[in-house]
């Protein structure tokens, strides 16, 4: 993608999460964490899955047309690629002369990757809750006297009982820095085990932005990580950001510098591995923010106090091969008589939802109606994953890519099959078995790890949690039956 070409994949608001006692009621249909940053990550992964499905469906349509003699008529980005954002991961085999301009290519696992010229940016209207905002919270207190700031190791004795019982509260123990914290809440609220946005974003610097479903399809290449986080300049504490996210001497993940989680041997690929990729925190001048965003929280004591909404808004762009392909420019000229004016050019919408307490507005968490589930919920994401996996080529059947970029099924091209015993063939077989045949979400994840589909991601995540310390998992929403959300009995 051209450096000046921007595309908004998703846009979210939100500031709520579920208490730990509510998790067992979710059954994969309820969002645990509705903070804007986390919704943005989930929506981004939903959009990636939709893009994968769109590519596979489009490829099958093109193959069918070619079989009928219609030929490959591609809607592309002008570079001969069938998606502006994703591409196939293939290994070139021997060339074939049966079809001029065609080369046999083995489809690798994971089958997709982000294009090398893609960079991912995130904009937040306020600092992520948790460690990255501790200094800002201190400065906002009525008594601005500096706190006795100590690192987590030095304050271990003081908070030992809290660490034993659970996570640090989001707005407690301001003198303890670098610690994993729960989402902030009112003092009288039932506690949650959802980790702060600072902690989750820090972990994503090692595990990439790809969630569990997306990791089964898309390679964790270096550009699958967040490149830049943009914050209003008044919402940035350089000390806090360097500690929370950086890889310098004060960075809490610094001991993971230089580490790589990568396969060796036949599975080793230069475009697929996990490592520590710290993102850059960039500032947005307050003057520019005021001109662009009129709804930010005012610091003027003379104005009425504002209150955050308990509702979350979710929007994602359409996939490249949807009914209306996503645009990549923001403004267009419109002529009205003699005058001409510039108007915003909106992106075609794929998903637009209003979420309240983890479900779509109009439903309750305890509602037996599965229609309450957001498109970002575990159940809906797994349902989409299953649809995509069913579209993948059969085990050990590669595809041929013509010079026009049109994938052609190997059987149709009368080429010999790839070796059924090949490692890639086995992984595709395991992928289909895990996703399509596993009865529950818990077993699907366990089977995927057992089949070494996600063993690197699991190890990287375990090392991150060990390094951060006191990472208590938010368990209780795993033992639900896979299948279409509409068929679930809640």
UniProtKB/TrEMBL annotation:
Highest rank taxon of the organism: Eukaryota
Pfam families xref list: A_deamin (PF02137)
GO MF annotation terms: RNA binding; tRNA-specific adenosine-37 deaminase activity
InterPro entries: A_deamin (IPR002466), Tad1 (IPR042935)
Domain annotation A to I editase: ranges: 13-220
GO biological process: tRNA wobble adenosine to inosine editing
Official protein name in the record: A to I editase domain-containing protein
Organism: Coccidioides posadasii RMSCC 3488
Lineage: Eukaryota, Fungi, Dikarya, Ascomycota, Pezizomycotina
